[in-house]
Amino acid sequence: MLSLALTLLLVSQCYSADLVETLAGDPIASTLVQLVQKAGLTDVLKSGTFTIFAPTDGAFNKVPAATLTSLLSDQQALSNLLKYHVVTGGHRSADLFNEETFTTASGEKVRINVYTHNNIVTVNGAKVTDADKAASNGYIHYIDSVIMPPVGSVVDAVRNDPDLSTLYSAIGKAGIADKFTTDPLTVFAPTNDAFARLNQNDLNKLLGSPDRLAETLRYHEVAHTLYSKGMWNHEYPKSTDSNEDRLHIRVDSSDVSINNAKVTTADISVTNGVVHKIDHVLIPIRVGIWLRFNNGK
């Protein structure tokens, strides 16, 4: 009985600190604690049960100085960003599942991905580095990057990026913009330079054949969310083209490649998944054969 009583006492002491107090007692959360105080969120985080996806000091060090300075001068923007890292309820890491989304305290969705092959959990692509810090009113999961709310779907991201204007035009010509709004979705997005690397005759043939153009563009889609931290070397995900052709992902210490293309900008979060810019257009084998031997007919 004495042993049980001591155990219960120790457990109660461990859980006596609330979320803010627990963060304040952890050296890796000093920046987050200061920002929570500056944003006036201390009482909010003490007033209910929450799960915090908490950027470490190292995560905040990755934020461009100009962005951080802007946030520090705008309390509402700072508050909204910090609330984006908070969801209602106590969620342990064991309870999280792949492609789960939560509505955050800022009112926007955040996406969870669980990659079982390497035991990595990400939140909008940020890696959970230390999970399940228990507090009296919830849980803290430390993450290695500050997460920003995505603005719009894949189509919106492509339309609003000048570096992807050729891709956006091709999507329009193929008449498949709606295919890029499904959820979840990963898109390997060829840049304008990637399209410029194509043989001009091949590009003209594709643009003149909406069906084959659509097949080619959908060869750049995967029907689940693949952030870079969840990819592994020699992964072969299915594309969303009509044959569900496989892509070949290669990962090394410095690069991520998809077939013959390198990822030049990774992990652009969107409301329905993630976009990675690549430096070559991916061509399905059967489209490549058509381009070579059928003169575009």
From TrEMBL:
PROSITE patterns: FAS1
Signal peptide: 1-16
One protein family per Pfam: Fasciclin
UniProt entry keywords in alphabetical sequence: Signal
Gene Ontology CC terms: extracellular space
Domain FAS1: 16-147, 151-282
Superkingdom per UniProt: Eukaryota
Gene3D superfamilies reported in the protein's UniProt record: FAS1 domain
PANTHER family from the UniProt entry: FI19380P1 (PTHR10900:SF77), PERIOSTIN-RELATED (PTHR10900)
Protein name, as recorded: Transforming growth factor-beta-induced protein ig-h3
Annotated source species: Plakobranchus ocellatus
